[in-house]
């Protein structure tokens, strides 16, 4: 198993409000966390950092206390996410400057041949197999709701004026319910976890082509391509390759 990761401020932002964590060499606890913060000049940066660190600490402190069975792992991710939500939400109450802050959150925990995911917001988790890409998470966004309602198409969503409006984010309310997913993994699967600074700049076909054509530095090439396409937001990618 190989992991590649990176984050970049992009070309339009004054600060990088994305934050991520990968457990050391994906050893005993195979954990990846990514957050894309929002809210004010400093708020988004604080929210994403707090969320990632809180999730990481909660999982590390409780991992050895559970049985490695699906229900218990799912509950661990849910509890970790809700703990992080509480930490960020409490921080918003400390000063008026942080009242509007919040963050997306992607938590991916690999146990044996499965990936357990907790998801909030419009950052994404994908699985890539050969030349096919599958989005595992569903965006918690206004335009995603319009797509599901049949009001707009996916193409129209790309340029919708409210495409950045989230319907769910971490830290904005006292309680949040994450999407909890389990995905079975096979040999040669590739996992991509990314903020919308990547997916707003590159389409899925471009992403797959770059990853497949750059086996040694796919993270750097994805970030470079997103910047070349405009770099309108912070860009963060985590790529996990299950290789022989």
Shape: globular
Flag low-confidence runs: none
* CATH class (first level) name: Alpha Beta
Q: In percent, how helical is the residue content?
A: 25-40%
Structural class: alpha+beta
Structure description:
By secondary structure, the chain is α+β, with helices and mostly antiparallel strands. It has one domain (2-138, 167-240): PPM-type phosphatase domain (Phosphatase 2c, domain 1, 4-Layer Sandwich). It contains seven helices and eleven strands. The protein has helices at 43-62, 70-92, 142-149, 154-157, 196-199, 204-213, 218-228; strands spanning 2-8, 18-22, 30-38, 102-103, 105-111, 114-120, 124-129, 132-135, 179-184, 190-194, 235-241. Strands 2, 3, 4, 5, 6 and 9 form a six-stranded antiparallel β-sheet that branches. Helix 1 (43-62) packs antiparallel against helix 2 and helix 6 (204-213) packs across helix 7 (218-228). The longest helix has 23 residues, at 70-92. The radius of gyration is 17 Å and the shape is globular. The relative contact order is 0.20. The mean pLDDT is 93.
Short description:
With 244 residues, the protein is an alpha+beta fold. 33% of the residues lie in helices and 27% in strands. Strands 2, 3, 4, 5, 6 and 9 form a six-stranded antiparallel sheet that branches. The protein has a five-stranded antiparallel sheet with strand order 1-11-10-7-8.
